[in-house]
Predict the 3D structure of the following.
Amino acid sequence: MGFKCGIVGLPNVGKSTLFNAVTQTAAAQAANYPFCTIEPNVGEVAVPDPRLFELARIGGSKEVIPTRITFVDIAGLVRGASKGEGLGNKFLANIREVDAIVHVLRCFEDGDVTHVEGAVDPVRDAEIVETELMLADLESLEKRLVGLEKKANSGEKDAKAQVALMGKALVLLEQGKPARLADIEREERSAWRALNLLTTKPVLYVCNVEEDAAAEGNAASAEIAAKAAAEGAGVVVISAAIEAELAQLDGEERAEFLETLGLAEAGLDRLIHAGYLLLDLITYFTVGPKEARAWTVKRDTAAPKAAGVIHTDFEKGFIRAETIAFDDYVCLGGENPAKDAGKMRLEGKDYTVRDGDVMHFRFAN
């Protein structure tokens, strides 16, 4: 299991350039006019994790299989998208299918690249997109409430609960705030997700800056960072132009290029790390002579459910998980030395998987 991010934003902010770079493909057409991306382009990239290669080396694994992240390049949105303007209907339908919104904002000046709003202002741009999503959510909720309120008034318990949840969203939306700011109880979370509101999805702002600002950002990206902090959203500074160049280089050349720019890692790596943090994801590993493999789960996932990511039979027939912490596996030199040192733990159904766990699941057929 990885996760799916929808790359959104106004036209001509660098969405498709970023998509092409991070997926190292030319699947999305990058051009200087609105709506150059019509159908959503989908690309998968491996999640960088040096731990996996270290485990493979120690375990003598023949193959290394990282977990993967899916990027969906979604058509550019304009004012009125919630009413179908531009390609709004496609935009809104596509965004409902993703786990998180990667909102690309133009934070650079370039007279050769037209801005659909006439001038560069990333805070305004962010508000345009957010407003259209809120308007779409409002319309969706108001339509659904008509029938639900009748059922609730007749005494249907489930309908009453749904109306109450929708009310929490409506209060915020009518104040011009996204529904993700609602205070939702643990027992309500499943029903809340089922509402499938656009503004409940976590947001990661990507500030697309000029090359010289890739390391530290600029005044425009600082404004977005402040906005993100106030909203509890994520933020990453990236130069899509630099990422496009990096995509054409091999490992050693990439490292040298990044060093000359004063960057510790590529924008893709920072984007993925920020996405993991935003979605509260962790990685566990399986290691054997055939392969070393990374698996992604939500934090606080119980061992049986984590096993089910590999195969549903593992979850259904779960008996126990043989677990070694990553540091113990590496420091002691593998599975058998860890066992000998008493560092392999036998964990049951109530065990919560931790980031970096090296696991072997026992299950009944």
In short: The mean pLDDT is 85. DSSP finds 14 helices and twelve strands in the chain. The CA atoms of residues 8 and 103 lie 5 Å apart.
